[in-house]
Amino acid sequence: MSEFISPTLSYSLLSPILVVFAGAIIGVLIEAFASKSIRPIAQVSVSIGTLVLALVQVWRIRSSSSTTAAMGSVIIDGPGLLLQGSILIISIIAVFLIADTENFAAAPAAIPGSPEERESIARGQQVTEVFPLTLFAVAGMLIFPVASDLITLFVALEVLSLPLYLMAGLSRRRRLLSQESALKYFLLGAFSSAFFLFGAAYLYGYSGSISFAGIQDAVVGGTGNDVFLLIGIAFLSIGLLFKVGAVPFHAWSPDVYQGAPTPVTAFMAAATKVAAFGAMLRIYYTVFANAEWSWRPLITGIAIITMVFGSLVAISQRDVKRMLAYSSIAHAGFLLTGVIALNKAGLDASIYYLFAYGIASVGAFAVVTLVRDSAGEVTDLNRWAGLGKRSPWVATSFAVFLLAFAGIPLTSGFIGKFSIFSAAYESGATAVVIAGVLSSAIAAFFYIRVIVLMFFSDPLEDATSVLIPSILTRITVLFSVVVTIFLGVFPSPLLDFISNIAIFIR
């Protein structure tokens, strides 16, 4: 009988993840035992404090001499820390939006329109479980880009996904649409998780290992069955491509973006992409780097289709949130360009793009929460006509984010697209670059169309009003605008910082 070996954990390297998990548990205890009057302020304080502390821990361990934690299941390197920092910064400003509990159902478990729901609303008994759910999702996202074996990666996938399934159904208004979107997200997510597990099983059959290092050694040595390798890569990729919303695994995105509470949509659109692409970059840049012949043509095709499809379909959308959803699909295609590049420049550009796009996305959805009528948020584009004349500050902020999405110079989006296309061109992916440029031109059309609608059209009779934002929403919008413009004008500090530390430890 072999001797039991106790597991060794590097609590210092795991501290950002452990801090967020601890904050989530404290949030659950607050929801269970604290009085209803103090819950909102307590939950907001704990959530923001937890995320800030975790961000401090990420900064503290950036120069750690050790690289592995949790018996080698987690690897802490430059790209992992950069992605964790991006997730935490995006999550902090997303929590600022979530703090406006007006967006969430008072009693999510009650049937829409039921006496129980009306009673909860009348008493002001706002349930605030969205905050610990957010922290649990963030904890899973922090693990996702630093996982170094398939089991840890799958656990992280479920930890980040399950809270999001619930959060998508918490909308205060249009409850049935919100619950429908949550159900779709859950069912399609379950299918994608199944494909992910199938892929993991085939890769284990190929290499005899679940660790990334073991699979990589098998790929380099060419000792396994190539059929198992191909099937494993294909199935594993499906699970990851679902999370980023790439075609043809995008069907959930428009419905979930439209039905979910807008602050949750902002959080999903930004933070989830960072985590999912972080895992993809690690897997394709390290584990499957020597098998690029097997996956690069497929990912190239998916990237081109995703860019073109997202840009074309976005043109016909008359709902702001659905337009942003298809825009997000197009951006998933742009980010796949960085994966295809498979070089250091592609890695640096992808991390920069993820951060810049995440900040702009949260800011854009923050603006959406402010445009309302008596029934709540107004997402019909026609009713945004003349918004620039009624609220120049709000319309200008939204215009900045749209210009960034379009990749217009002097915004972070231009630097991101230029960097990522340059890296792809250097690697010989000319077709992807051409498709990306054409898709960007198409996308610019519907972004500028919205700007023209806001500033050069007269308001309709049933014009919308603009809610006076809370201080936290103001901070979110202002911070996002400043970062978007600053990274467009002075990108060098961040690009240099990323370039210096973005090196995968294999």
Overview of the structural elements:
This protein has one domain (11-501). The chain contains 20 helices and five strands. The protein starts with 10 loop residues before the first helix and ends in a 5-residue tail after the last helix. With 506 residues, it is mostly helical. Strand 1 and strand 2 form a beta hairpin. The model has no long low-confidence stretch (mean pLDDT 87). Helices cover 72% and strands 2% of the residues. It is globular. The strands form two sheets. The chain has a three-stranded antiparallel beta sheet, with no helix packed on it. A two-stranded antiparallel ribbon has the order 1-2. The protein has helices spanning 11-33, 39-60, 78-98, 115-123, 130-143, 150-167, 175-207, 212-221, 226-244, 252-259, 262-287, 292-315, 320-341, 344-368, 387-390, 392-406, 412-426, 430-455, 471-489, 492-501; strands spanning 68-69, 74-75, 371-373, 376-377, 465-466.
